[in-house]
Amino acid sequence: MRLVGCLFLAAIALTGARAASADPLKIHVGWSTMPGHMIPVLFLNPKILRHYGQSYTVELVAFRGSSPQLTAMAAGEVDLMASSPGTMALAVLNAGLDVKVVADIIQDGVPGYHTETWLVRADSGINSVADLKGKRIGTNAIGSAADTAMRAVMAKNGMQDRRDFVTIQASFASMLALLEEKKVDAAPILQPLLNEARKQGGYREIFTSKDGIGQADLVFLLGQADFLAKNRAAVTDFTEDYVRAQRWFADPANRTESLKIIANFMKIQPSELNHLFTTDDYYRDAFCVPNLEALQSSINIAHDVGLLPNTIAVPKYADLSFVEEAKRRIIAAP
After folding, report:
1. d(CA 298, CA 168)
2. What superfamily in CATH does domain 117-213 come from?
3. What is the SS3 string spanning the chain?
4. With contact defined as beta carbons under 8 Å apart, do 114 and 282 qualify?
5. Lowest CB count within 10 Å: 41, 54, 239, 319, which one?
6. CATH 3.40.190.10 region(s) of the chain?
7. Residue 2 phi/psi, 5° resolution?
C-alpha cells in the first residue's frame, strides 16, 4: 500500500511538472511610442496570431524612450525592448550585456518615406539651425534615436549640448504643447501631431533626422542572448506572430479595421492616422528585417557626436534567424 501511495504521489508530481513546463512563456516587451512602434496593438487581435497563449504570452511595459528600457533590461524587468542604435551600443559598452538585434520596428529617412522632423514656431525668428545657438531643444531621452539625430545635426553646425544649446527632456506627446507654450524653441514632432501642426500653421520645419544621420534603422527589437537561447522556440513563435501582425495591420484590405484598433488604443479618431502605412509614415520592412548597415552607420555617428565612448561591430550583436524563420513560415503558410 505504501508503494502504491508513493507511486500515486509521484504520478501526480510528474503530471504537475509536465503541466508547468507546458505553460506559455511570458515575454516582457518594452516600448515607448505609438503609433510608431505598434507593439501595444499587435497582440490585440487573436485571429491573426498563430501561437499566442500557447507557447508564449506578452506583457507590455511602457517607457518614455529607449534609454530607460536599457536599465529595465539590465535589471531583468524586460526581455525584449524597442531599442535605438545608441542604446544598443550602450548596452554592450556600458552595461556589459550580450544583446542581439531580433527584428525591425521602423526605419527613418528611407527614400520616399517619412523622416522625423523638428519644428520651431514661425514667429520665433529661428530660420536656420545656426539660429538655434543658445536655444532650448526638446528631446525625449538622452541617447534615443531622435536625440542622436538632433545632436548629429547640431554637431554638423559646430554646436554641442550645454555649450551652445540646452536640451529639455519630455515625452513626444507633450512636445507640441511645449513648443506652443514657448518652453522649448525647437522640438521633434512625431506623426500624427506633425500633420496636425502642418495643417494648423504657425510652425516652421527646421531640420530632420535624415539631415543628421541619413537613412537609419531607427528602432528595433533587442533581446539578451541568454534569454533568446534559453527560450528559442517560444521567441521564434513570438517573432512569427509579431511579423504576421505587422503585415496584417499594413495590409490595405484591413486598413479600416486596423486604423480603428490603433485609434481606440490611442484614444483618437481613425482619421488622425491617415498617414499610417503610407509614404508619410516610417518605412516598415515587410518581414521586419533590420537594416544592419544603416544601424552600424547610426552607431558610428552617435560615437562621433560624443554619445558613445566607442563603437561596436553590429553583425556580432544581431541574430536574424528569428525573422528569417518567421518569413519562411509565413511564405509557406500565409
Report:
1. 22
2. Periplasmic binding protein-like II (3.40.190.10)
3. CHHHHHHHHHHHHHHHHHHHHCCCEEEEEEECCCCCCCHHHHCCCHHHCCCECCCEEEEEEECCCHHHHHHHHHCCCCCEEEECHHHHHHHHHCCCCCEEEEEEEEEECCCCCCCCEEEEECCCCCCCHHHHCCCEEEECCCCCHHHHHHHHHHHHCCCCECCCEEEEECCHHHHHHHHHCCCCCEEEECCCHHHHHHHHCCEEEEEEHHHHHCCEEEEEEEEEHHHHHHCHHHHHHHHHHHHHHHHHHHCHHHHHHHHHHHHHHHCCCHHHHCCCCCCCCCECCCCCCCCHHHHHHHHHHHHHCCCCCCCCCHHHHECCHHHHHHHHHHHHCC
4. yes
5. 54
6. 18-108+216-332, 117-213
7. -60, -40
272: amino acid identity, one letter: E
What is the residue type of 129? V
The answer to whether 142 and 169 have CB atoms below 8 angstroms apart is: yes
CATH number for the domain whose boundaries are 18-108+216-332: 3.40.190.10
> What does the block give as the cell for 227?
534569454
pLDDT single digits (tens) 95-139 = 999 999 999 999 999 999 999 999 999 999 999 999 999 999 999
Q: Which three cell numbers stand for residue 85?
A: 542604435
N-to-C CA span, the chain: 56
